[in-house]
């Protein structure tokens, strides 16, 4: 097993001529979908609509406002990998038959992958029925709860997840990675892309006391209290390894927040990421703060006011801010690799045992020698 690490992008060069209003339009309103089924109606709470399939609440709303955020998140990920032949994933999958996207949201990723691989069956699954009007014929969007026992029969060439931060507690994550492992064919791949909830800044442009700096810690503390850690970005590698995956690779990113970067790719990514956050923050925070806010759960109005203040600060192009993101991909080993690994582990264990035995024997011999010497010494004393 080996692991390839990549350094995050270097400090991003700043464009000193950036002015905000010229870059952001107001065209982020999507049409409203009205569908009769009770799953589509969801559960209204604090002005947002949540899924009702799982008895366990999912923290992010499934409503039109949040779907705009999913679209924007998809675009940011694509722009950040636009210099790659395949901006959708990095796992070196050849001629895949089956690909699965867990927590597919609007199915953007699944649909794009289905377009890219017309002979592959691409399945996207989500708690909330994706309100999608058109799909390529090789794409299937399903409604299901991936925290429960999976029932797919086809071995997958690739299982993908993106922005599933805070969706599960630790035990659920372990089970999901185990089910990924069990459902991937030997030699197949898992890939996950996650972003951090913290607003980062490499220079002094974001003042220490800026409200944007409170966002990450506030949400992370709520996630902890809710038993849904938001540090998904930092736990994927280890979780993949524990589940049995090998060949673990990772790519770290800085997703700019705003159009402040000089480089065109970062400027575009930052512009879309700004929209991602502007449309997303209320939905990301509402459940967490209204249920687990400190010092006591917040009201809907308090969350709205907090998010309005954050939005106002986010509009300042003088803040060279970004969020960390990380993509990790890894392979399920072939049976002969597993056998070789087990043999190597058994040999290493036997070596360790033999060394421990030798050490114990050496200690016993030293002890006996010391006792004999002591006896000789005592005898000499007596003489
Ligand atoms: C933040 S969205 C990301 C959507 C999509 N992966 C993307 O990147 O555009 C997370 C999605 O995971 C889904 N989800 C959360 N828990 C789930 C579960 N237990 N089973 C299936 N889907 C789940 C949510 O409904 C939501 O659509």
UniProtKB/TrEMBL annotation:
InterPro entries to which the protein is assigned, alphabetical: SAM-dependent_MTases_sf (IPR029063)
Biased composition annotated in UniProt, kind: Basic and acidic residues: 340-362
Official protein name in the record: Methyltransferase domain-containing protein
Region span, Disordered: 340-383
Biased composition (Low complexity): 363-374
UniProt feature coiled coil, ranges: none
GO molecular function: methyltransferase activity
Domain of life: Eukaryota
CDD domains assigned to the protein according to its UniProt record, in alphabetical order: AdoMet_MTases
